[in-house]
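Researcher: Structure prediction, please.
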Amino acid sequence: MTGNAHAEPLLLIYGGSFNPPHSGHLRLALECAEVLRPTFCLFVPCAVPPHKEGHNLLSFELRVALLRAALDDLGPDGVCPFAVSEVERERPGPSYTADTLEILAARYPELRPVFIMGSDDYRQLAEWRRGRSIPDLADLVVLPRDGDGAAEFAEQTLTLRPDAVPAPRPAARDIRAEFALPGGSGIRLLDGPYLEISSSLVRERFLAGRDLSFLVPPGTLRLMRENRCDICEIWACRG
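Model: Predicted structure follows.
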């Protein structure tokens, strides 16, 4: 049995600044794809992250190139196709998740959107712009982090959406907990590994001249080395 409890084919969406993309990002997306079996997965880099200062943010074009280099290493025989979307460059102003989900839903009407989150971001979802309505725009799939488990997930979900109803039995073995919303969408906690790699760790080690093998995909690392001077100039900026 797969985790896709709906008849519709799924579009898996993974957003973030990806400054830079690293192996933890790819592993997280793969874990979700293996459980949910989507039609394909879109990585959506933020053009203007609303919750982060941009003084050390690589250009959108370079972050897209680093992501594409990372995905090239996956090969053609993966669980589903992975691609990079530049949708957030197509509009001015901050890159709000709710707006992006609405655009992608209109662009892929034949696919049911599923948005990936780490549990650390999920804890703060109510503070996002239109955060409480985001589960109505897409199903959410949450990956545990920082020791979060099913009890914490349940508490956070009912705080975010008191109208959520727990499923008596998760749809798949790798789903630890699951809630349904009145509109038909769902919120799921996956029972998978979350690699403790952060973009800030990668940036620090890159600036220090450390070896990033196994922290970032090989294609991404090659491109970072080719652009080392420009990258170091931006990442060394402390605002």
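Model: The chain has a mean pLDDT of 90.
Researcher: Thanks, that helps.
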